[in-house]
Amino acid sequence: MTTTNTAPAAEPVTELEEHFNRTIQRDQRIEPRDWMPEGYRKTLIRQIAQHAHSEIIGMQPEGNWITRAPSLRRKAILLAKVQDEAGHGLYLYSAAETLGADRGELTERLLAGKQKYSSIFNYPTLTFADVGVIGWLVDGAAICNQVPLCRSSYGPYARAMIRICKEESFHQRQGYELLMTMMRGTEEQRRMVQDAVNRWWWPSLMMFGPPDDQSKHTAQSMAWKIKRHTNDELRQKFVDMTVPQAEALGVTLPDPELKWNPERGHYDFGQIDWDEFQRVISGNGPCNAQRIAARKRAHEEGAWVREAAAAYARKQRERQQRQEAAA
Amino acid sequence: MSSAGKASEQATTEKVRHEWPLYEVFVRSKRGLNHVHVGSLHAADDEMALRHARDLYTRRNEGVSIWVVKAEHIAASSPDEKDPFFAPSADKVYRHPTFYDIPENVPHM
Ligand SMILES: [Fe+2]
Ligand SMILES: [Fe+2]
């Protein structure tokens, strides 16, 4: 990690590179047509694509409940939320394309298992309480991750993140409100909420990625200001934010070691099962195969629509050309 | 699926990708303001690009008017500040109001 991830300034640099480094140091944004090191471009494409795929795959766990939402109000909210996630995916694919990536190609790489998406979406949504807990914890963790990315050094990525963060607040609040409603309900509803919290808590903590001493990309990404905080810093921030929310809701977070540490000024928490994380991220979580199969099916079943639209556009274009030629 | 079927499907994907051009999207957020670039999308034609832009970029009243332009039709200078294209504006300080000293007792200036 020390040899491969040296800060760009430490290497012999060309004039272009020096200009790039100065722009980053002055906290200015890199824009699409600027010269940038190949590593910077590759790192960004990998991170943005992974992020875009997560938004797109992330529609499935909640989409699972749209037809079974308990009221029209909840159904309308859930539809709007899932539609937002599709939008987030598209903002991010759009940002990746400014780096020379091709959206169609990125989708193919996702379907071929060559690019990853967040491990969190490989867990099943067993009850409607899961919809609330995803909004509260999963979107909550996403907000923690994404707010600092609004200042990421790559302009189009930072701007996409600003747009996304504006919408995430609705996602988290609708989830929390849903849970508050269930907690005011029957004993069985309260049990459902607690059960969902038990299942989603640890996977939510894993969303921040491996611990800092095992994170391959963190040092270089921070030098380039693509990332602004380490995985562990963000995870701690999320825990500190969430504990009082859990208390207000009346649920218990499933970690006996979770305790306020007055010396650190933070909550201590238990050991995360990184073996589980590795298992899920490498394709062997409870729903990996199902998620990719559903995405593949949607892509293939939509092929005729894409072709028909292209054929229609071609026909219109040709007709117009004929008319212009005749005139 | 047969390997021939797979190959033809891939060829179709290939074709579709090239036939859905990239559009840049500009949104006027309210009357009195300029259209501002907000991002891009792919669409088969102009009309579809507008519809998609509406759904993608203005789900919450973000705009009162949308422009879509095929990305290939945009001519751009390099935004890099090293580029001489923008150099003349830096040395014409007299274009900025702060260049001129106006006495304090002159109001509304
Ligand atoms: Fe999202
Ligand atoms: Fe979200």
Automatic annotation (TrEMBL), chain A:
It comes from Thermocrispum agreste. PANTHER family: 1,2-PHENYLACETYL-COA EPOXIDASE, SUBUNIT A (PTHR30458:SF2), PHENYLACETIC ACID DEGRADATION PROTEIN PAA (PTHR30458). GO terms for biological process: phenylacetate catabolic process. Coiled coil: none annotated. This is 1,2-phenylacetyl-CoA epoxidase subunit A. InterPro entries: Aromatic_CoA_ox/epox (IPR052703), Ferritin-like (IPR012347), Ferritin-like_SF (IPR009078), PaaA (IPR011881), PaaA_PaaC (IPR007814). GO terms for molecular function: phenylacetyl-CoA 1,2-epoxidase activity. GO terms for cellular component: cytosol. Transmembrane segments: none annotated.
Automatic annotation (TrEMBL), chain B:
InterPro entries: PaaB, PaaB_sf. It holds the Pfam family PaaB. This is 1,2-phenylacetyl-CoA epoxidase subunit PaaB. The lineage of its organism: Bacteria, Bacillati, Actinomycetota, Actinomycetes, Pseudonocardiales.
